[in-house]
Amino acid sequence: MPTQSVPSPIQISGPTGTVSDTSVAQAQSNAYFAIKAWVDTKNNSLTQDFLTQFNAWSSNYIAGSIGLDSMPVPPKSYVVAFFDDPTTGTGDPGALPTAIQWPYASQVGGPVVAPPPVPQKPAVVAVPQAWFSALGGTVANCPPGDTFPVGFKVTASDGSVWQKMSSPTPFGVAFFYQKVG
Fold first, then answer.
1. Within 10 Å of residue 15's Cβ, how many Cβ atoms?
2. Averaging pLDDT over each range in 12-21, 44-53, 97-106, 164-173, which range is the top one?
3. SS3 of 113, please?
């Protein structure tokens, strides 16, 4: 009688190298390792997708176009779970005497990754009213240290709205604020 091999990741042939190992234990092992590989791959993919989504959100959050209420939440991770095969352990003639458990992937684990910290918004620079009217009241140069993205809007103390814009020039890109309202 051949010696029973210990179930291991997906085997194509049995212990003698000539006969396929078709034991229930080997089938369970093969199913487990296949599901485990899928779960690991899927969790890595979910992590990368979440981090990409979080980076996009943080850029918009820093720019002021969205708030904390739209911050993405890490998805739940996949885990290997098991279920009892209902066709086994029933005591019916021809059925296996004990219930067999089979693995499957279930998205019931904890978050795939801890949420990154909320980014800090840049400090708002107090801009004097005279700065806005320096060039006739419709266009103004960016103040030193300005790091706001193009499209950023600021409201002056008189209620006028100014938007950061850019324009290509022969010497590079010019950044300025233009009165839009």
1. 13
2. 44-53
3. coil
> For the segment 82-116, what is each residue's pLDDT rounded down to a tens digit?
998 888 877 777 667 778 889 999 999 999 999 99
Token pair of 57 as six digits: 């959100």
151, part of any domain: yes
Cβ contacts of 159-165, under 8 Å, gap ≥ 24: 160/132, 162/132
Tokens 């060039």: give the residue. Answer: 135
Number of domains the chain is built from: 2
pLDDT computed for residue 146 by the predictor: 83
If asked whether residues 98 and 54 sit together in one domain, one would say: yes
Specify whether 76 is located in the same domain as 40. yes
Instruction: Kindly give the residue spans of alpha helices, DSSP state H, lying in 4-145.
Output: 24-63, 129-132
Domain of residue 62, residue span: 24-106
